[in-house]
Amino acid sequence: MTFEQWAFIADLYSPIIVIVCVICMVLSGREQGLRFGLWQLGGVLLSTAFIYTVMFIDNALGIWPAFNLDYSTHTAIALVFIGYFIVYTPKLRGVMVLSIVGYAALMMHQKYHTLSDIITTTVCVMPVILLCQYKLATIANR
After folding, report:
1. Are 107 and 10 in contact (CB under 8 A)?
2. DSSP codes, the chain
3. How far apart are CA 142 and CA 123, in angstroms?
4. Spatial separation of the C-alpha atoms in residues 50 and 48, rounded to whole Å
5. pTM confidence score
6. How would you class 115 by CB atoms within 10 Å of its CB: exposed for 0-12, middle for 13-18, buried for 19 or more?
7. CA-based Rg of the chain, rounded to a whole angstrom?
8. What is the distance between the alpha carbons of residues 125 and 79, in angstroms, rounded to a whole number?
9. Whole-angstrom distance, CA of residue 138 vs CA of residue 136
10. What is the pLDDT of residues 1-57, one digit of tens each?
11. Which of 26, 103, 116, 138 reaches 20 to 30 Å from 39, CA-CA?
12. Sign of the alpha-carbon torsion through 30, 33, 34, 36
């Protein structure tokens, strides 16, 4: 495949997982109540605010560039939704984790990011993303 064809596939990844996430939230809201679905949405929005805050801090302070790295916003936004699937959809959890691994491989193939960019971004943001998702899931289940 050409560079452009791979780029097209890479560009589809985030919108597809967003759509799947929204569908899961709507179904969850229908099954467990609107309140539960809104708490799920809150976890996604809070996680999204966090990863963009990290991006703005990195842009202002140059944290990743100081180590000759790049904060991977592509990875971070995908991880927001992967975090959702890890917390709320056990049936899709494995598939979604494999999908982010494939997406990471594609980003490296396309030279969007290095493995170090992806790993450092993941290590930095994933614990907070999961904390946001789990904490709001706990609140929703009360």
Report:
1. yes
2. --HHHHHHHHHHHHHHHHHHHHHHHHHHHHHH-HHHHHHHHHHHHHHHHHHHHHHHHHHHH-HHHHTT----HHHHHHHHHHHHHHHH-HHHHHHHHHHHHHHHHHHHHTTSS-HHHHHHHHHHHHHHHHHHHHHHHHHHT-
3. 30
4. 5
5. 0.91
6. exposed
7. 16
8. 8
9. 5
10. 888 888 889 899 999 999 999 999 999 888 888 888 888 999 999 999 999 999 999
11. 103
12. negative
Cβ partners under 8 Å of residue 38, min gap 6: 29
96: Cβ–Cβ under 8 A, 6 or more apart, which residues? 17, 81, 82, 85, 86, 89
Cα dihedral 41→46→93→95 (10° resolution): 90
User: Distance between CA atoms of 100 and 86, rounded to whole angstroms?
Assistant: 12
CA-to-CA distance for 20 and 128, rounded, in angstroms? 22
Can you give the length of the chain in residues? 142
Amino acid at 128: V
